[in-house]
């Protein structure tokens, strides 16, 4: 009796217990993602689109994004972790996260990471986030990084366009977007411009189920530029609220919400993260 190639492969799978590519991609993977994030089940739905508004230049916001991505991927959801980095960095990032730990070719060798004026997007915490994604991928988790900032005079529009394009190529994936908290506002308008359409607002037509969360914190510090020269950049103190929120995700959108978010993600006290290159040597220690 002559067996077809398909029959032979099926018989081999019975003997070896192999799985199809689809099953391998969606099966949960055991990984050390850290403690479960309170409230994460409300946003980590299959094919979710979650926007995390951050204050650039902290240790905690990138770490939270990595942790949330890990938990989503460990549940079997393919994850696209979208970062407010120049699109020109995409090839360098892909090469890095696919490489082996300890190898050369760090993603921070480009002009973006070595700018004289560092606004927090090229921080040490962001570099560590990319290293964490590499660890997760080598652990078997389906996590990919998307650099979505094409620049331009209207970055809210160009970034929204870039995310729509990335989403069109992976509609079944869970998107976790880390971006400055003004870009994360879902409502139109700002105190200085009632017609201003932030990035997240421009995404709502394509992503009606989008969830936008603002960073809640207990104060601390962040690496912030007060001007356009290197001497204006450094760790700056941040005042926390009078009443600290519990750690985790809280959904609280209401019709009269003045902040334009669906809720918050609380990380406790913030600590400044200096640039991964350049000005890092001039940074002062983060407060304990």
In short:
The protein has 288 residues and is an alpha/beta fold. The chain has helices at 5-16, 21-26, 60-74, 90-98, 124-138, 155-168, 199-203; strands at residues 49-54, 79-86, 143-149, 174-180, 211-216, 220-225, 233-238, 248-251, 263-266. The strands form two sheets. Strands 3-2-4-1-5-9-8 form a seven-stranded mixed β-sheet, sandwiched between helices. Strands 6-7 form a two-stranded antiparallel sheet.
Please characterize this protein's 3D structure.
It is globular, with a radius of gyration of 21 Å. The chain is an alpha/beta fold and 288 residues long. α3 (60-74) packs parallel to α5 and α4 (90-98) packs across α5 (124-138). The protein has 7 helices and 9 strands; from the N terminus they run ααβαβααβαβαβββββ. It has helices spanning 5-16, 21-26, 60-74, 90-98, 124-138, 155-168, 199-203; strands at 49-54, 79-86, 143-149, 174-180, 211-216, 220-225, 233-238, 248-251, 263-266. The strands form 2 sheets. The protein has a 7-stranded mixed beta sheet with strand order 3-2-4-1-5-9-8, sandwiched between helices. The protein has one domain (45-282): Rossmann fold.
